[in-house]
Specification:
2 domains, 44% helix, two-stranded antiparallel ribbon, alpha+beta
């Protein structure tokens, strides 16, 4: 047996997916890499609403054509044994509830689909094909399990950074004072004032969204359009 397939073989045996359909294998390895602390080196993309790795599909196909006995060198067995322990802990943490009638493969595919598309954590209106009708009753249970595993998706955009209201007033007053002083002295003065910024929701005035970041506010003296 090719040695590079040994970690995948141990993974599928420990997760009890050795004889499962390809999609269930994809979901199991995807979740293992996301939550189990075991990186087998597979990269996933979305295919038919589910995570999919072409490399994993190829290795799984190669693995199915090999004998069941693992010819692993003694020096490698200790490393694989430690990995197997971590996979087994992950399997116990991700198992469906005992009273649940959902099969393991469908359960893993449901968890993987939700993790792969974070909007499924809150959306009740699911696009066709994302979750089969027979699995929709298990959505709340799957969402709860992902939260237990520490999954907290970012569903909102990052808040816009704008100056504090008090700083805006300070800037306007300072610029006005500089302008008045320059006019009285018949000078052309450029005033530069820096304000602090904090993270607050988007501020809209008159239908216009104002976005300001940490920067120096510079303005030449003269009439100000307010």
């Amino acid at each position: 047996m090719d040695l590079y397939l040994a970690p995948l073989a141990i993974c599928l045996r420990t997760l009890r997916l050795a004889s499962s359909p390809d999609r269930s294998v994809q979901a199991g390895v995807y979740l293992l890499q996301a939550f189990g602390g075991v990186d087998l080196g597979y990269h996933f993309r979305t295919q038919q609403q589910e995570p999919w790795s072409a490399e994993l599909a190829c290795d799984f196909s190669d693995l199915a054509e090999l004998p069941t006995a693992l010819a692993v060198p003694q020096a490698t067995r200790a490393i694989l044994a430690g990995m197997e322990q971590r996979i087994n802990r992950f399997r116990l943490a991700i198992e469906p509830a005992r009273k649940s009638s959902i099969v393991r493969g469908d359960w893993l595919r449901l968890l993987a689909a939700i993790h792969n598309q974070p909007t499924l954590m809150i959306s009740e209106r699911l696009p066709n094909g994302v979750v089969p009708d027979r699995l929709r009753p298990y959505l709340p249970l799957a969402r709860g399990r992902l939260i237990e595993l520490g999954y907290a998706p970012r569903l909102a955009a990052e808040p816009v950074r704008v100056p504090q209201a008090s700083d805006v007033v300070t800037v306007l007053r300072a610029l006005d004072q500089v302008g008045r002083l320059a006019d009285s002295m018949d000078l052309n003065v450029q005033a530069t004032i820096t304000t602090r910024t904090v993270t607050i929701p988007v501020l809209e005035t008159g239908g216009i969204s104002h976005e300001v970041s940490d920067a120096s506010h510079a303005s030449q003296t003269g009439p100000m359009a307010i």
